[in-house]
Design a protein that fits this description.
By secondary structure, this protein is α+β, with helices and mostly antiparallel strands. 26% of the residues lie in helices and 19% in strands. It contains two helices and three strands; from the N terminus they run αββαβ.
């Protein structure tokens, strides 16, 4: 967890993780929810989750 809001936004805002390839993707949440954002690589799935805050 970041100590100040700017770092928190840089690390977690608009960052999603592909559930298949585990790669990080920066995208707008509404596009992710609509299924318009695909994962990178050969899989190319639309199954994304937000990055976890540990």
């Amino acid at each position: 967890m970041a100590k100040f809001p700017e770092a928190d936004a840089r690390l977690f805002k608009n960052i999603f993780v592909d559930k298949k390839t585990k790669r990080k993707i920066r995208a707008h949440p509404l596009k992710v929810q609509a299924g318009k954002v695909k994962g990178r690589g050969k899989g190319g799935s639309t199954r994304l989750r937000p990055k976890r805050k540990k």
